[in-house]
Structures are given as C-alpha cells and as structure tokens.
Amino acid sequence: MRNLVMICVFVIGFSSHAEAKKVEGKIIRRTGTETVIFNVPFKLLSSRPDIERMQYRIRYYDKFGKKMILKPGEAEEIQFAYKNEVVRMISISNDLGLQGTFSRSTFVFLRLEIDGPLRLFKYYQTSSNNTGYYGAGISTGGGTYTTENLYLQKEGQKLKRPRTLNFRKDMAEYLSDCPALVDRIRDKDFKRKDLEFIVMFYNKQCQ
Q: What is the pLDDT of residues 62-113, one digit of tens each?
C-alpha cells in the first residue's frame, strides 16, 4: 500500500513538471528592443507553451549566450511565435493582487488577446482540488485545474475584471463612453461569454 501511494505521488509530481524549448523572441524595453532566445516552458506531453509559468518570470539567453531571468516590471513586453501562434505578454502593474502557483509580484506578465484602445488580457491560474481520496484514511491530495480569466484595460487605466454577477450593470458603467455598445449589452446582445466581441466592437465603433 505504501509503495502504491509513493507511486501516485511520483506520477502527480512528474506530470506537473515542465520541460522547456528554445524559442527566438523579443524583449521590448523603453530603451529599445532586444532579440533573444527564450527558454519557453511546456507542460509534459503538451504542444502549447505554459503561459502560466511565464506570467511571473521567464528565462532567456542573451546575445552572448548567457542565461538570464526576466521578471515583469523589467520590460514593457515580450513576444515570441511558436507554430504560427504569436504570443504577446505585457508587463502590467499587479493592482488586483493576482497570484498563482508560482509567484506573487507587484507586476505580472499578462497575455494580450486583443490590442487597441480597449485591451483584452488573459490570466492563467492553477488551483487544487483537494477531494482526492484513495481509501483506508489515505488521501491522494486530489488534482489540479487551470482557469483562464479575462481582464480589460482602457488606455492609461488600471486592469478591470468584469463581474460575473451584475455583468450588464458593471459593463454599462465601465463602457459608458460608448452608448451604442451599452445598449447592445443591456439588450443582451452581448453577454459575459462575448467579451472578445465586446472589445472588438468598442475598438471599431467607439473611437
């Protein structure tokens, strides 16, 4: 029984381990842009970058081949492409106190989904499910799951997380500078699941 528990612990730990791949990209600072090789983390057996780990730091190789660590707040933005997918992560002041499995910081890199006067960001967070149970009083600790939370930001303003409850009222107040969009939200043409369309409408019709 003890050996079985140890195997379970090993498998859970191994499956959460991240490997890394070298991917060319750019670090954008106020002083200029630097081309580097990022050490992009990937979850085991996954073909997609582990963006969550990169929200608080990312390792890269500079032009001399020296391995470095970049934290949000030390650059304006990082960019790289992998399998025709362009990833842009913007350094944002962590006014909402976002914190995940890997770190907590006064700044955070958030993945930019839509750019414009109203920007849409995605924040990844892993949480634990502690309901796992093996038997005979032995708990396996459950599993983990990752949520993808969307945030808005108007130019020059702080992050805004749309409310789940009273979404229409919340967005009507936040987007009050665009009456046409507010009408669409109040008429339920746009709901919380339509945040991408809300942002695109605002950027195209409200400027």
A: 989 999 999 999 999 999 999 888 999 999 988 777 765 555 668 899 999 9
Show the CA angle centred on residue 202, arms to residues 118 and 28, nearest 5°.
25
Q: How far apart are CA 15 and CA 22, in angstroms?
A: 21
**Greatest mean pLDDT among 12-16, 19-23, 44-48:** 19-23
- List all residues 6 or more positions away from 137 whose beta carbon is below 8 Å from its beta carbon: none
Q: What is the 3-state secondary structure (H, E, C) of 86-128?
A: EEEEEEEECCCCCECCCCECCEEEEEEEECCCEEEEEEEEEEE
Q: How far apart, in whole angstroms, are the C-alpha atoms of residue 182 and residue 169? A: 9
Residue 165 clears pLDDT 70, i.e. is over it? yes
Burial class (CB within 10 angstroms; exposed 0-12, middle 13-18, buried 19+) of 7: exposed
Burial class (CB in 10 A: 0-12, 13-18, 19+), 84: exposed
What pLDDT sits at residue 100?
55
Range list of β-strands (E), the chain: 18-29, 32-43, 58-61, 67-70, 77-82, 85-93, 107-114, 118-129, 143-154
